[in-house]
Write a structure and sequence with these properties.
The chain is α/β, with parallel strands linked by helices. The protein contains 10 helices and 11 strands. The longest helix is centred in the last third of the chain and has 27 residues.
């Protein structure tokens, strides 16, 4: 069973998501790309036209006009825009997958809690690129050791940080930290983002520090992290743990560990390059995760239809 979808926001993220849906998905059918500028002034809308996707240029008014065409809306605009649009989606009965840091709905990570939150809401938030990369590993560590504190430092290429990313920096750090706690399971979380201007541009790299009890079995942590890496790679092919979990010595940290240890691991995300350059893994992981969420929702719809004797068409 498939779900019909619209993308609101034809910028870099929305356009990359469009290509991912067209290239990779058998269960998500893209019906429309919606923006606010004329087609001739929008590269994303023009790309959609070239792919024979219907386009509209009146923003939320276009969603209201064509709402009967789709079941799912991907919000690829800004946090402020989603806060304004979310009540409209709810009124129209549309399921919203929010790629902004607005956090109107609960945080969702496909391999951690998507089934749980999709059962109780029609608006899910994909946290941030740093959240989608790091929350799965915090969860992986927390399920074998109680994570007292998780800190993520995300370094991305300045070239891959567009106006939306730069405008939402505060929301990024706040939402990511909250995601480390609410979904990852950390008692406390902190997020830092660094825009690196290096040339050539660097890949997205996250360093993750987790504070756990000194009795933690590091081999179990490594096994859990390796398992989670494989699961994330099922929908983010360029996701790689580049440093398996290691324990830092007391003299390498700036705070008192007491009876705890700090486990450090590192992640790199390489984009697939459908629309964006391969170094823009920070954007790629958002679009891949959003598509993974929509495909899981399609699977749930199919399961419900089968259980109730409905059609899978």
């Amino acid at each position: 069973m498939s779900v019909s979808a619209a993308i609101v926001g034809p910028g870099n993220i929305g356009t990359d998501l469009m290509y991912k849906i067209l290239d990779r998905s058998d269960s998500v059918e893209l019906e429309r790309m919606i923006g606010i500028y004329p087609v001739e002034e929008s590269e994303g809308l023009q790309a959609a036209v070239d792919e024979d996707i219907n386009v509209s240029t009146d923003g939320i008014d276009s969603v209201q006009e064509h709402a009967d065409e789709f079941d799912v809306v991907f919000e690829a605009t800004t946090a402020t825009a989603h806060e304004q649009n979310a009540p409209v989606y709810e009124e129209l009965g549309l399921f919203a997958i929010d790629l902004t840091p607005a956090a109107v709905g609960p945080y969702a990570v496909p391999v951690v809690n998507l089934d749980e939150v999709a059962d109780v809401t029609d608006n899910i938030n994909m946290i941030t690129c740093g959240g989608q990369a790091s929350v799965p590993l915090v969860h992986a560590i927390d399920r074998v050791a109680d994570v007292e504190y998780a800190e993520m430092v995300s370094t991305i290429a300045s070239e891959s940080a567009g106006p939306g990313t730069r405008k939402n920096i505060d929301e990024f750090t706040q939402t990511t930290a909250a995601g480390l706690e609410a979904v990852g399971g950390a008692d406390n979380g902190k997020a830092i983002i660094v825009l690196n201007p290096a040339e050539p541009p660097i890949m997205m790299r996250n360093t993750l520090y987790t504070k756990v009890h000194e009795s933690t079995n590091i081999d179990e942590v490594r096994k859990s992290v390796a398992d989670m890496e494989e699961r994330v790679r099922s929908y983010v092919p360029g996701y790689e743990v580049t440093l398996e979990p290691v324990v830092k010595d007391q003299d390498e940290v700036s705070f008192d560990l007491n009876d705890s240890i700090v486990v450090t691991t590192m992640i790199e995300v390489e984009g697939e390059g459908q629309h964006l350059p391969s170094y823009a893994g920070n954007l790629d992981i958002m679009t891949s995760s959003a598509l993974g969420a929509a495909e899981r929702i399609a699977e749930q719809s199919s399961a419900v239809a089968s259980a109730t004797g409905g059609s899978d068409d």
